[in-house]
Amino acid sequence: MERYNQITNKNMREIVLLKAHPCAWGKCRFCDYILDNSKNKMEMLKLNHEVLSHVTGKFGVLEVINSGSCFELPRETLAEIRSIVQKKHIRRLFFEAHWMYRNMLQKMRDYMGVPITFKIGVETFNNDFREQYLNKNADFSSAEEVAQYFDSPCLMVGIKGQTREMIDYDIKMLKKYFQLGTINVYTNNSTDVKRDEQLVSWFRKKYSCLDEDPSVEVLYENTDFGVGD
Which domains does the chain have, with CATH numbers? Predict the structure, then answer.
């Protein structure tokens, strides 16, 4: 599995995929990504140290992802990230966190000592689809509410049961309330959530303009950031 890469097309940065404790929620219907977590602390610390050793500070920006939220990384790994921020002159971090951690974001910003762009896996702003079908456990009522805490939503498109109208609305909310965002085109995995090929084809045609939009990163494959497998 690739765990380090450099993103050079949009928002240039280094990115690392680390191991963390099990996701505090871990019940999203579409997600088998949590299989990358661990309960073996020494294993996590050793792997994370090796991955972080590749960070050069080349762009002054570092994104750290894991199979859940940044708050589930071992304390020792967070301390190592903070040390790298200082030694490699990192000016900005990208972290991801679940909605349940919304009141802890400032504490992490204070700890790291540099600006953090916090991502959140929204998947969709359609409350019923997000909560009743995808089981996100993220009970916000609007995109505006999410923007009060987080900087960059991650949307998901191309799921059976999703509609064109839902996707149109989600992208409209992304552009209205956020300066950055990520759109993940759904890929079938080991869960019972399935990809809608017709919806994906429609999205790719209608929103091809996003490929040139510096504020939106579209992932057509799970590994488009160059990490994972």
Answer: 4-219 (3.20.20.70)
